[in-house]
Amino acid sequence: MSVHVIATGESFAFTPENEAWAKTQLAKYPSERKASAVMPLLTRAQEQRGGWLTKEAIEYVADYLAMPYIRVLEVASFYTMYNLKPVGRHVIEVCTTTPCWLRGSDEIVKACKKTLGIGLGETTPDGEFTLLEVECAGACVNAPVAVHNGAYYEDLTADSATKIIEALKRGEAPKPGPQIDRQTSAPVGGPTTLKATTGGNA
Amino acid sequence: MPKLTVDGIEVEVPAGATVLQACEAAGAEVPRFCYHERLSIAGNCRMCLVEMEKSPKPVASCAMPAGDGMVIRTNTPAVKKAREGVMEFLLINHPLDCPICDQGGECDLQDQSVAYGAGQSRFLENKRAVEEKYMGPLIKTVMTRCIHCTRCIRFSKEIAGVPELGALGRGEHMEVTTYLEQTLHSEVSGNVIDLCPVGALTSRPYAFTARSWELKKTETIDVMDAVGGNIRVDARGNEVMRILPRVNEAVNEEWISDKTRFVYDGLKRRRLDRPYVRKAGKLTEATWAEAFDAIAKKLKGMAGDKTAAIAGDLQDVESVYALRLLMDSLGSPHRDCRQDGAKLDVTTRAGYLFNSGIAGIDEADACLLIGVNPRHEATSINLRLRARSRRGGFAIANVGPALDLTYKVDELGNDPKLLSAIASGAHPFAEVLKKAAKPMLIVGQGALARADGAGVLAAAREIADKLGLIKDGWNGFNVLHTAAARVGALDVGFVPQKGGRDVAGILDGAKSGAIEAVFLLGADEINSDPLKDAFVVYLGTHGDEGVRHADVILPAAAYTEKPGTYVNTEGRVQRGLKAVFAPGDAREDWTILRALSDALGKTLPFDNLNELRAKLCSEVPHLAVIDEKPAAPWGKFGTAGALEPTPFALAVSDYYRTNPICRASCILATVKDAMSGDKTEATGTHG
To answer: Which chain A residues have a beta carbon less than 8 Å from that of B183?
Structure first.
C-alpha cells in the first residue's frame, strides 16, 4: 500500500464540541502520555471531516498531542478504519471474513458492485457511495453483514443488500439490523429453548 | 549477575543483558537483522532464534532477558531449522537483485542467507514491489529490498532525534518512509545507510560507482570538526570512493556526520595539483624549483619579523610543527593558528581542552552551553549530549542563541552578562551546577572569537572554579573547538611569540606594510583582502580564499592523502594514515616545508616523517601518547575582562560550508539545498 495522504488546503480544527470532548479523552491519560489518545482523536477528526482524514487533520491531531507527524500517520495508515482518501457520503463496508464468506458474502459483494457500478475500494463518480471490503466486523452470528456509516445491516442476501442500496440512493433510511424475520441475534424463527417456565424453580 | 549456560559454556552477564548478549559473551554467533547494540530492541526479524530449555518454542534471543540458570542452545538442528524458516519468509519478498545492488558484498541478508537460505524458493506467487521513497539527496532507497527491521526508524527517533522516519501500512503492505517523502532533516542521516542490513537504504552519491570488495580500506581520522571522528576511507586506485565510520567508543561511537561521510567528492574538485607563481599579476604554472626560487629570492635579506605565518584548520600537527620550526629559523615571532580570532589562552593546556572528555558526557549530570551549537560544531558530541539527555537526570541550559539541538535545553537567553550572574550564584542555574555531582560547561568558539573573548573565557573559568566543576577526578571545564588542527597547533605553540602578532595583527601588518611576506598553511577562513600587497605563499589543497592574493602556490596533500597526527578537542592524539596519493605534483605538507627550508638555506633537521615525529614528540611529549584522553592538570590561565552586552554569535553559520573541502563538494551543496527545502524534481537529464 502506497499511502498518499491528501492535502486539501482546508485548515482543520476541532469544533468547540469536539474540542471539549477531546479534553475528556486527554483526561484519561497522564499528561506525558497523552499520545495514548491518538486513536479516539483521529476517529473524531475523521467523523468531523466527513469520513476521511487529510494531511491537515493528521497534523492537527499530531500537534494536539505533541507527537511527530509520522507517528500519527503510522497509526492512521495501520488501521483500515481510517480513510486517507476521499470517501462518499455513504460508506458501505462489506465483511468478507470467513464466517460471512461461508454464509455467502461473495454474493453480497457482487450485488453491491452491480447496484453501485463500482468495484471494491472505489467511489461512485457522483461521490455518493464508497464500497469497501473489511475484515471481520464482529457480527458473525448475523453473517453476512455490511455496515453503512456505522449502522449494521445483518443477515443479508443479495436481494436485501440491493434493496438497501436502492433505498439509500433514494435518500431513504432503511432500517438497520437483521434483514430477515429475526430479533437481533436470537434464533431465526423465534426462540427454540426456554419457551415456557416450568415453575419448578419457584 | 545472572549465570547461564550457552552451548555448554557457562557465562555470567550483567543484570539486564539479553540472551543474545550472553550468547556473544559465550562466543556463539547469533544471526540478526533488527537487533543493534545502540538501538532499542524491536524483536521483529526473528532471525536470532535460539533454543531455551523448558521453553516449548524457540525464543528470540535479542528480546529475551538473560535469567539465572537458563540453558541456551544455539547450534541444534531445531535452531537451524527455525532460522531457515525465518530466512525463507524474509526472502519471499526480497528481490534477487544482488548483482546490481550496492549492498552486495557487505549485506547481512546475503551473508546470512549463505548459512540459512534454501537453495531455491517454494514461493510461486509474485513478489511484492514497493515504490521508491524520496529521503533526500544522500539516501538512495530501493524499498522492495526492505525487510522491515526498523533500524532506520529507531535510529532517527532515538539517536538522531529527528522522528521523521516511520512505517506506514501494515503486514505485507508495510512501507518505511519519511513523512510525506521529505528529506530526512538530520546531519547524521547517512548513518542509516550503515545501519540498513540490506540494500534498501544505500548511499546515493556512491551508487553504482564501486563494489565493496575492490576498495582499499584505510583507517584514518576525520578533520571536518575537532572531534576527530574515526573513519575508514575506501579508495579504488587513487580515488576516494566513500568514507565510513569506524568504532571508537570514546570518540564517535560508530556514527559520523553527513559532512564527514559525503565530503569526499570535494577532494577531487578545485584541487591545486601543481605549483603556481604570480608573474606580472597573473598566476602561472611553475615547477617546484621555480616556486621555491621565487620564495627564496623574495625572502633574501628580508628581516625575520617582516614575515608571518597563519596555520589553517585542517592541518596535521606535523606540518604545523614544521612551519613553526621554519618561522623560528627565519626569526619571525608572528604566527597564529586561530583564524577565527578565538581568545584562547595557551598558558595551561586544560584551558583549551574539552577536559571532561567526550565520553565524560555520559557521566555528567548538568551542563551549561556557552555560545555554542554542538549540533553543527561537533555532531558526534551532540549525539552524546542527546543520549545523555534521554537517560534523564541531566539539566542542560544554554547561554547563547536559541537552538534546536534535538533535545530539551533550558534557554537562559543570549546575554553574556548571564555568565557573571551564574558565576556569582545569583542565577538559579548556579544552584543546579553546584548541586550536581559531575557538572560541566561547554564554551564554543563563537563565544571566544569576540573582542571580549578573553573575558568570556575567564568568566567560564570562574563558573568552573566557583560552582564545583573542577573536583577530584572530574574536570567539567570544556572548550569545544571547531577546527581539527586547532588543539594540535596550540600544543606545538603556533601562537604569537614575544612581540608577535595574532591573525588580526598579521592582516593589519600586511595592509600597513609592517609585514611583507605571509605564509598561509591551508588558511582559508580569513578574509585575505588585506594580504593584497604582501608577498603571500599559500601552501594548501584547494583553490579557495587563501589563493586569491597568493604569489606562490605550493600544492599540498589533503587529510586522506598523508599520514598525520591530529589532536581532537579533548586533547586526544590520533594518527591518520594515507589512503591515496595527492593529485598531480601535490606533495605532503611537511615534505614541501622541508624542501622549502632547504631552498631558503635554513634546512629543517629531519629527513623523514619518523625523524620529524621523534623531534616533535621530544619537544611535546604528550603527542607520543596515541588515542588516550589526557588528564591535563588544572592551572592558571585567563585574564578577567568586562563582558560586552552584544549577544553571542555562533562559530558555524553554514554547516555544510565550513572548510575548503566541503565548499568544493557538490554533494554537500545539494544537501544544503535539500535541507533548506528546495526539493528539486529530478528530471531525465539530472546527473
So the answer is: none
Chain A residues whose CB is inside 8 A of the B175 CB are 1-3
In this complex, do A71 and B163 lie within 8 Å of one another by their Cβ atoms?
A: yes
List the 117-146 stretch of A: residues with Cβ below 8 A of B.
Answer: none
- pLDDT tens digit sequence for B217-275: 999 999 999 999 999 999 999 999 999 999 999 999 999 999 999 999 999 999 999 99
Q: B480-497 in b/e burial notation, b at 16+ Cβ within 10 A?
A: bbbbbbbbbbbbbbbbbe
Q: Which residue of chain B comes nearest to A59, CA vs CA?
A: B179
Please provide the DSSP assignment of B293-308 as one string. Answer: HHHHHHHTT--GGGEE
In this structure, are strands B477-480 and B276-279 parallel, antiparallel, or unpaired? unpaired
| A71/B contact by beta carbon, under 8 A | yes
C-alpha distances in angstroms, B133 versus A55, B45, B136, B178, B183? 18, 22, 9, 8, 10
Helical pair A38-49 and A55-64, crossing angle rounded to 10 deg: 140
Joined together, the cell numbers standing for residue B598 give 632547504
- A73 at the B interface (CB within 8 A)? yes
CA B379 to chain centre: 7
Q: Does A85 touch chain B (CB under 8 A)?
A: no
How close, in Å, is residue B579 to chain A by CA atoms?
A: 41
pLDDT for A9 equals: 84
Q: Give the separation between CA A8 and CA A59, rounded to whole angstroms.
A: 12
Q: How far apart are CA B398 and CA B371, in angstroms?
A: 8
Q: How many CB atoms lie within 10 A of CB B49?
A: 24
Residues of B in contact with A68 (CB under 8 A): 157, 163-164, 179
Flag whether residue A201 sits within 8 Å of chain B, measured between CB atoms. no
B557 closest CA partner among B601, B593, B604: B593
Q: Residue A73 is inside which H or E element, if any?
A: helix A69-78
Whole-number pLDDT of residue A8: 86
**What count of Cα atoms within 13 Å lies in the side-chain half-sphere of residue B238?**
8
Give the helix/strand (H/E) hosting A94.
strand A90-95
ipTM: 0.89
Is residue B321 within 8 A of residue B531, CB to CB? The reply is: no
Q: Answer whether the bond into residue A144 is a cis peptide, omega within 30°.
A: yes
Cβ–Cβ gap A77/B131 under 8 Å: no
Cβ distance A73 to B179 less than 8 Å, yes or no, reads yes
B131's CB contacts (< 8 A; 6+ apart) are A2, B143, B175
Q: What is the pTM of this model?
A: 0.92
Residue B16: left (phi > 0), alpha (psi -120 to 50), or beta? left
Place of cell 580500506: B217
Task: Read off the pLDDT of residues B49-98 as tens digits, 9 standing for 90 and up.
Answer: 999 999 999 999 999 999 999 999 999 999 999 999 999 999 999 998 99
Grid cell 603556533 is found at B494
User: Distance between CA atoms of B76 and B263, rounded to whole angstroms?
Assistant: 47
pLDDT per residue as tens digits for the range B121-172: 899 999 999 999 999 999 999 999 999 999 999 999 999 999 999 999 988 8
* B 180-239 near A (Cβ less than 8 A): 180
| Residue for grid cell 453473517 | A143
Q: Which amino acid is at A79?
A: Y
Residue B59 gets which letter from DSSP?
E
CB contact under 8 A, A68 and B163: yes
What DSSP element (H or E) covers B667? Answer: helix B666-675
Indicate yes or no: CB of B169 within 8 angstroms of CB of A71.
no
The residue of B146, B180, B183, B184 whose CB has the most chain A CBs within 10 angstroms, and thus the best one to mutate to test that interface, is B180
Q: Which residues of A touch B131 (CB under 8 A)?
A: 2
